[in-house]
Specification:
mainly alpha; binds ligand IN0; transmembrane
Length: about 400
């Protein structure tokens, strides 16, 4: 029950309640489906099937960017499905990956044709500059993914390369779409280093969080150069007797991922369009919250560590301006700092990158904003009210039409 998990966090209960009854203004989609073509409506239906919360953020994008990012997101999900589908034997998958890429170039591959004809129709309805970005990025990703189908992630450098192919290129593609739409400066599309870091921070956080799930599905994305310092085989970390070496490796990888935060701050501080800022900032603040939850946490090796729904909704509502994002980053780097143990092998590196991040994120403006202190009496009153109304909301939700609604009519 999401609300129970947030009982210790009154702010989250209020935001869960707000989100439940009306969503949050900043990500309210500006879409009227009626004026849409059948194929476009289907594309947005696909999008909403993939991830409700993030789909809303995409649908809130301004102008031509909305359709371009929607199609880009769906194409990437399709590529992802092919790459993930372990059932396709290797000798068939490599040419398949190439053909998926060629499909958009050649428009003749049955897989897409049958599965997602609507996506290819709407892909061709996009402006040429958007089509060129998407097919160029898909081509580079297809080639990169094929390269890693035949090999494991060995060095830390290879880890960066793998994450570049599956997420860095997404950041580079999105940044070029932002500039092509002229909603953002051309510099955003040109600075591929920063755009790449945006993707690497998200992908490394996902790989760290999903250790056990990937292990259980026979996938291994933790770099050998990291885990071989602490054990013989990566799968050892799933066994409690290897917990201390597992935590040492986990903390090393979190420390590595934190090195992308300064670039993420520079990238976000360059954005000028509110809808683009929200679209880019929300996944980043979710990632640093997830990384803090994973740091030195044995739970990573026993299940999947997830941030609370209330926490996610609160972050989504707050990540709408740079000073709020800076203080969120400062708050979670502080949270990690408090968990750095004196015996952790990466201690010095972790303390160093955390002090760099604090320096960069504690701009004067941020100091004042984030933590507004609420009196405890007020807190429990609101909690009680929210809990009651939550119960009432759930109780009445089942009412057939015509029964008494929230306003007692
Ligand atoms: C994304 C990214 C994303 C958004 C904005 C800017 C980005 C810049 C660089 C790289 C990626 C960027 O965001 C999504 C967020 C998402 O899908 N979150 C899921 C939860 C989850 O954990 O999957 C949700 O349901 O909210 C993201 O994770 N990826 C993604 C894919 C396509 C696009 Cl167009 C944008 C996936 C990945 C692998 C990180 C690139």
């Amino acid at each position: 029950m999401d609300i129970l998990k947030s009982l210790g966090h009154p702010e989250e209960i209020i935001n869960l309640f707000k989100y439940k009854i009306g969503g949050c203004r900043s990500v309210m989609p500006k879409l009227d489906y009626d004026s849409m073509s059948e194929t476009l409506r289907t594309c947005y239906a696909y999008l909403n099937q993939t991830s409700r919360s993030f789909a809303a953020v995409i649908q809130a994008l301004d102008g031509e960017l909305r359709h371009a990012v929607c199609i880009f997101y769906l194409v990437l999900r399709a590529l992802d499905t092919v790459e993930d589908d372990m059932s396709i034997p290797l000798e068939k998958k490599v040419p398949l990956l190439f053909s998926v890429v060629h499909y958009f170039m050649l428009f003749c591959f049955y897989f897409m044709l049958f599965c997602f004809p609507q996506i290819s129709v709407e892909f061709r309805n996009l402006g040429q500059e958007y089509q060129d970005v998407i097919s160029d990025i898909c081509h580079q990703m297809g080639v990169g993914m094929a390269e890693f189908l035949e090999k494991k992630v060995s060095s830390m450098e290879e880890w960066d390369k793998y994450c570049h192919y599956v997420a860095g290129l997404v950041g580079i593609g999105l940044s070029r779409l932002f500039s092509a739409s002229q909603l953002e400066d051309t510099e955003v599309g040109r600075d591929t280093e920063l755009a790449n870091s945006m993707g690497l921070f998200l992908q490394k956080t996902n790989i760290i969080r999903d250790y056990l799930e990937d292990q259980q599905e026979g996938r291994a994305f933790w770099p050998q150069e990291a885990w071989s310092q602490f054990t013989e085989r990566l799968e050892d970390f799933a066994h409690p007797q290897h917990l201390s070496s597992a935590l040492s490796c986990l903390n090393l990888l979190v420390t590595d991922a934190l090195h992308h935060v300064p670039d993420v701050i520079t990238y976000l501080s360059r954005l000028r369009n509110q809808s683009v800022f929200n679209f880019c900032a929300i996944p980043q603040v979710m990632a640093i919250a997830t990384l803090s939850a994973c740091y030195n946490n044995p739970q990573v090796f026993q299940g999947v560590v997830k941030i609370r729904k209330g926490q996610a909704v609160t972050l989504m509502m707050q990540a709408t301006n740079m000073s709020a994002v800076l203080s969120i980053i400062a708050q979670y780097s502080q949270e990690i700092l408090q968990k750095v143990s004196v015996t952790d092998p990466s201690r010095e590196k972790t303390l160093h990158i955390l002090s760099l991040i604090r320096e960069k994120s504690l701009s004067p403006a941020a100091l004042s904003s984030r933590a507004h202190h609420i009196s405890p009496v007020y807190v429990s009153a609101v909690m009680l009210l929210a809990a009651l109304s939550w119960q009432y909301l759930n109780a009445t939700a089942g009412q057939p039409p015509g029964g008494a609604d929230m306003h007692g009519h």
